[in-house]
Amino acid sequence: MDELKAGTVVTLNFSHKAPFGYFLTDGKQEILLHENDAAGPVDEQAPLKVFLYQDHQGRLAATMNIPDVRLGMYNWATAVSMHKKYGVFVDIGINKDILLSKDDLPDEWPDWPEAGDKVYVSLKLDKKDRLFAKLADESIMNVISVPASGEMLNKDVDATVYRLLLEGAHFITDDGFLGFLHQKETNGRIRVGQVIHGRVIDVKEDGSINLSMHPRSYELIDEHTAAILHYMEGRGGAMPFSDKSLPEDIRNQFSISKGDFKKALGKLMKEKKLYQEEGWSYFTEVKK
Cα torsion at 103, 108, 110, 114 (round to 10°)? Predict the structure, then answer.
């Protein structure tokens, strides 16, 4: 039998019971199955299939909870906690969280996964046979992906970031489409493991897609009209702004350009929600 190592699934035989669990054996080495790792009754007469990992003392231990993430096998894991000195601990479905080393993460910790984020990982052993999580690279993501069709153009999608570059982020959508989010199309700093929402702005020949997190023009107008209406409601239905107002005054109050302000005003006037008079704007039901 091959040497037992962490990160693998093996079949062992019952050796003897202990006050805190069971000892299993391959005939050469005894491995502790702690009572907390016994997912059900242990048949002392039958071989037992278990997953091997290292406990908090670094000793080889067994669990009956068989994770999908193993040596050479990739799946999604959930980030649990971040430690700037070490990296990010992830939950693969066993009682002990596994470390995703800072050596395998971006240089700056704000780019690391936060608690609750998902990362696509496998397991690996370092030179001292310590068990670590390992991020999937581009070749692995290609295997699990599917090509997008041209019908996806302008559709909204949710996606998970799996790799960062200086220019932006690589992601995979919930439907398995790979793509790229350029930095100029983001709404702020993006991190590995983050779930992003955006619209498809390009479908490439290879079936990959480009996303933008910026709202569509009509969505932006709706956002601006809502801000104007909220401001006017707080002033009794009138405001000292119109399409003749100075650009700097508009930007100081609403943080938008005069062009966007005029588009929003035009929409509200077309809907007969307000009118303008002598440099002011009024709700239609309000009289000066």
Answer: 0
How many DSSP H helices and E strands does the chain contain?
A: 4, 18
Q: How far apart are CA 210 and CA 148, in angstroms?
A: 11
Tens-place pLDDT, residues 5-55 = 999 999 999 999 988 899 999 999 999 999 999 988 888 899 999 999 999
CA distance 51 to 64: 6
Question: By C-alpha distance, which of 124, 77, 73, 135 is closest to 102?
Answer: 135
Taking the C-alpha atoms of residue 140 and residue 182, their distance in angstroms, rounded to an integer, is: 22
**CATH classification code of 75-136:** 2.40.50.140
pTM for this prediction:
0.75
In the chain, which residues fall in CATH 2.40.50.140? 9-63, 75-136, 146-212
Chain centroid to CA 137: how far?
A: 16
Residues of 220-259 as b/e, b for ≥16 C-beta within 10 angstroms? Answer: ebeebbebbbeebeeeebbbebbeebeeeebeebbebebe
Looking at residue 272, its amino acid is K
Does the pLDDT value for residue 288 go beyond 50?
no
Measure the CA–CA gap between 220 and 195, rounded to whole angstroms: 22
11 phi/psi in degrees, rounded to 5: -110, 120
Is-contact 170 106, C-beta < 8 A?
no
DSSP H or E run through 233? helix 217-233
Enter the tokens of residue 7. Answer: 């990160």
